[in-house]
Amino acid sequence: MDAATVEATRRPRCSQRDTRKQAGRSKRFALSGTSKWDKKHFTGLHELSLKWFVSEYTNDIPKAIIRSTIQKAFQLWAKQANERNLPKVTFHFEEAASKEEADINILWAEGAHGDQYEFDGASAKKNILAHTFFPGHSEPLNGDIHFDDAETWETDLTAATNYDRRFFPYVLAHEIGHALGLQHAKKQEAIMYPYYKNTPLDEIKLDLDDKCAINWNYVGTSKFCLFVWLMSEIVPIHNNSDQMASSNHLNNSPKQRIKAAKRILKQTRIPRCTASNDVQLLIEARLQKFLHFPAPESKTYSEVLCNFLLGLHAYRGSPEYVASDSLEKEFNGVIKEVSEFGPVSSASVRRMARRAWRRLEHGKPSVLGECTNAYKFIAEHP
Fold first, then answer.
1. What residues are annotated to the active site?
2. At 349, is the pLDDT very low, low, confident or very high (cuts 50, 70, 90)?
3. Annotated binding site for Ca(2+), which residues?
4. pTM of this prediction?
5. Contact, 150 vs 119, CB < 8 A?
6. Is residue 32's pLDDT more than 50?
7. What does the alpha-carbon distance between residue 35 and residue 46 come to, in Å, rounded to a whole number?
8. Contact 191, 182 (CB under 8 A)
9. What confidence score (pLDDT) does residue 126 get?
């Protein structure tokens, strides 16, 4: 292991993999209906309203500061969850008057505390600081957030740099993501990455991975998030893993990070789907394994993603491309470049979406499941 990997293993992490309702395969984005709040919490299309309450406080932080920090962390998700390439998701969060009125109960406890996931104590080997129950967990624990009170909690960043102090704001923001139904991300830049950081709430920027997870969970599949997934899951497989991993451990100046990112991006080899390789089969298999796509849909979307790769080749070879392009700009460039995507793959995907949508409207089994209009956006937009 390199120094960065060793350092990561020493950092406190979230225990969410241990608090799922049942064992299952790890997903790239949270797709399951059990990771989504019940319909009674929705006040409009993709508009979710939740109440929170602190039933047990820690003595480490004044109650007023705890409550204001919680309000700020929820607002972070409410304000940043959306991405301009995706349908809008709206969150409304407010403090409840009592635990009984709350959807999300927040508490501090030590060791065994009434659920089956007891805490491991201060500075323990596993470094477990908190756990959260997904919305689909059985009531009354669903959505609840628990913090280990054996730890020493801080809201002051300077004090939290001490090894035995825990920075409450960042841990809280991460756990709220779980309370909204999101699982862990693989990207270190994402707030849903399982290892906590000492980043103030004012400086946290939700990553595209976080935004796609929210959108995928509450709206449904989208071409843009498939592109994000493609760039995160498929492209790195065909590149030097050590080189790609090193880019995730950059702790130097912003200028150095940008320079390194540009160098890595320029050296990235984009795979192609051809009759002589298994790239499309790999994409199809990973869509089924990690995104839980049914076999017919995974085949259709593998064709779409192969065209994305073709478009990526065309776009990166065009005069418009620069290595510092954002993922959003690259996505738009890919769509513009790939003529095959428009008349063939896009049309077939929209036909599939319309069929699924009609089946759902008539009460028949559909790939949409509990996602209100998971494919409607694709069906209506080229």
1. 175
2. very low
3. 60, 103, 120-121, 144, 148-149, 151
4. 0.67
5. yes
6. no
7. 15
8. no
9. 65
